[in-house]
Amino acid sequence: MSEQEKPEIGSIGWVDLTVPDAGAVRDFYREVVGWTATGLDMGGYEDFCMSAPGSGRTVAGVCHARGVNAGVPAQWLVYITVEDVDRSAARVVELGGEVVLAPRSAGGQARFCVIRDPAGAVCALHSPG
Questions:
Q1: Which of 34, 49, 60, 68 has CA atoms 20 to 30 A from the CA of 107?
Q2: Distance (Å, rounded) from C-alpha 5 to C-alpha 60?
Q3: Radius of gyration (C-alpha) of the chain in whole angstroms
Q4: What is the C-alpha separation between 97 and 118, in angstroms, rounded?
Q5: d(C-alpha 41, C-alpha 36), whole Å
Q6: Which residues partner with 44 through β-bridges?
Q7: What is the structure's pLDDT at 123?
Q8: End-to-end CA distance of the chain
Q9: What is the mean pLDDT of residues 88-101?
Q10: Are 123 and 79 in contact, with CB atoms under 8 Å apart?
């Protein structure tokens, strides 16, 4: 990934939906918003990259709540780009938040975790590596 392709630190770099049955929800969003789906092999099951109907640009993921997403509550989840996921997760706890899903690999050198802020809102922190 070139420097120009890397999401800016502090920006929302990705959004996905994690649910127990990603196939059913994939079909729902295909019908409701016109997204097309491309399967993504997760080693024994398939998650989905969803693309905009006009541009074909990948805009979101629809994921099963298993594998790396086991324990993630059913929800749309925004991924905020940080420089160092582990360091940011430690700060979450220091500042009164909660780490819902501990930092882990997201393929290659990328890492993510899921947090709950002191107000109770949930999001993910992501570092492209």
A1: 34
A2: 17
A3: 15
A4: 5
A5: 16
A6: none
A7: 94
A8: 10
A9: 97
A10: yes
Q: Hunting for tokens 């999401």 — which residue is that?
A: 7
- Cβ pair 15, 78 in contact under 8 A: yes
CB 72 within 8 A of CB 83: no
The answer for 33, left when phi > 0, alpha when psi is -120 to 50, beta otherwise, is: alpha
What is the longest distance spanned by two Cα atoms in the chain?
Answer: 44
Specify whether the CB–CB gap between 124 and 80 falls below 8 A.
yes
Summarised one tens digit per residue, pLDDT across range 57-67 is: 999 999 999 98
Average pLDDT, integer, range 70-76: 85
Compute the mean pLDDT over every residue in the chain, rounded to the nearest whole number: 91
d(CA 43, CA 111): 18
The token duo for 17 is 């939906």
Weakest mean pLDDT among 69-73, 79-83, 111-115: 69-73
pTM of the model: 0.82
In the 8-state DSSP scheme, what is residue 117?
-
Confidence tier at 5 by pLDDT (50, 70, 90): low
Query: Which residues, 6+ apart, have CB-to-CB distance to 4 below 8 Å?
Result: none
The pLDDT of residue 73 is 80
How many residues in the chain? 129
